[in-house]
Amino acid sequence: MSRREDGSLSREDFTFDKERNVYVCPRGKLLRTTGRIHDGTTLLYRARSSDCVSCPLKPRCCPKASWRKVPRSIHEDARDVARALANTAAFEQSRRNRKRVEMLFAHLKRILKLGRLRLRGPCGAQDEFTLAAIAQNLEPPALEVVRPPNGGDRADDQHGTARFLRRAEIAPERERATAELSRAFDDARRRLALLVDRSLRYGTARLSD
């Protein structure tokens, strides 16, 4: 909900009583609804004109109307739950997790050129997406194997990356990255075998039809 900047009363100034299903205005008057849904999602809560005509807050509340009405979405209860969770630690962790996932999807679409799927059907889409995910998962450990460590003596190394990789101080890091890459390749081979087996069974089933 947003508060109005011109000093007039906004929906935030009205209190919703969930048990009675009414809004209560700052002067204690009730705004009721007929239950009719407008535009598919909105309920309108209206005050009585007899309550508004003599109200001292009318110039700030409904200066051009005979009574005040307050719209409320039929999904407002779910929005209230979301607002209550917005300032919690779990919500902040969820935001960080979403950013990581969205970055991976952006990488698939822009770097790996997976803007659209070229294979038809759910099985084809799953196979193509799985192959793209395998390539994406293999990239970090592969870069760890060939990437030189950060250091100030890179400038005086005349032979570049190859000489860095031969140095003894990076051997443990290189071994760790190589082990991760080996595990990733094993996982990729296993997934590819499953994809090939499923594709062969799907092709056989179509030929038999």
Widest sheet: strand order? 1-2-3
- N-end to C-end Cα span: 59 Å
Tell me about the largest β-sheet: 3 strands, antiparallel
Percent strand: 5-15%
Unreliable stretches: 151-158
Mean pLDDT: 76
Q: Can I get a quick summary?
A:
This protein is 53% helix and 10% strand. With 209 residues, it is mainly alpha-helical. The protein has 3 domains: 12-83, no CATH class; 87-114; 117-208.
Verbal overview:
53% of the residues lie in helices and 10% in strands. The protein contains seven helices and six strands, in the order βββββααβααααα. It has helices spanning 49-53, 58-61, 76-85, 89-110, 121-146, 161-165, 171-208, and strands spanning 15-17, 22-24, 30-31, 37-38, 42-46, 69-73. Strands 1-2-3 form a three-stranded antiparallel β-sheet, with no helix packed on it. Strands 4-5-6 form a three-stranded antiparallel β-sheet, with no helix packed on it. The longest helix has 38 residues, at 171-208. It is elongated and about 80 Å long.
What is the fold's blueprint, element by element?
Blueprint: E1 15-17, E2 22-24, E3 30-31, E4 37-38, E5 42-46, H1 49-53, H2 58-61, E6 69-73, H3 76-85, H4 89-110, H5 121-146, H6 161-165, H7 171-208
Antiparallel strand pairs: 1-2, 2-3, 4-5, 5-6
Helix pairs in contact: 5-7
